[in-house]
Amino acid sequence: MSEGEGMIEHIHEGLESDDIIMPSEEKMLFAERIFARLKPSSIGAIPSMIHKKAKTVGGIFAGYAVFWWLTVLQVKDEPAFESIFFGPEFLTITILAPCLIFLGSLLSDFSRELGQLFPGLASGIMFVLAVLYTFEPAIMGLMGDVETGDAVWKTFRLGVLCTTVLMAAKLLIDAWLLVWVKEFMEKNPGIFFANNGDELDNSDHTVIDTEA
Q: Where are the alpha helices (DSSP H) in 20-147?
């Protein structure tokens, strides 16, 4: 090979390496963790998984709204109840406790996926408050401060509302993570992951090896 041809080949290789912009290692690790946890059967299955999860979340929230409307707003002569934890009334608790569960779920997954300390601490506080609000009526019923039947009915409704929101939050977070992975793969079409999250060979490298 002549000296001129060698220089041309070196410049060509340099341009190719500059044109390839690999994602950061942090984004690669994040995508691997999502694949390892959610285990999509293939890259093409991700849009279908997003659709199913989003549709399920919509149905859950619709059922939540109907249940709350029928069992809380439409109940006549609801016995008064005031929590000893910052003093909210029962109607406020039926909104506050599920919101704490929802925000706690978001912060918990954020802390787990990104390895952040503060969101995990905040989510733990929110979950504890939600549990206290949910079971407080039943405990006060056992102590005789509230009529037993009404206490159980209040705790049952709060339990259903909080559990429903928890399920919806988990599915919504999974759907959002899948949307992120889908956009990541579209921006980096040469990167593929196996079901266990292991990175497969870059398609550009495969083409080069075949041509060689």
A: 25-38, 46-68, 90-114, 117-142
Which contacts of 78-85 are long-range, i.e. CB under 8 A and separated by 24 or more positions? 79/146, 79/147, 79/150, 81/137, 81/146, 81/150, 81/154, 83/133, 83/136, 84/136, 85/129, 85/132, 85/133, 85/136
Q: What is the C-alpha to C-alpha distance for residues 129 and 138, in angstroms, rounded to an integer? A: 15
Cα dist. 140→35, 145, 160, 187 in Å?
A: 45, 5, 19, 56
- How many angstroms separate the Cα of 52 from the Cα of each of 7, 174, 175? 54, 11, 9
pLDDT under 70 in the chain at which residues? 1-24, 188-212
Record the tokens describing residue 58, joined without a space.
């919509």
The span from the CA of 27 to the CA of 181, in Å, is 10
Note the pLDDT of residue 21.
57
Gap between the Cα atoms of 183 and 177, Å rounded:
10
pLDDT tens per residue, range 5-25: 444 344 344 434 444 455 667
- State CA 21 to chain mean position distance: 28
CB-CB contact of 189 with 195 (8 Å): no
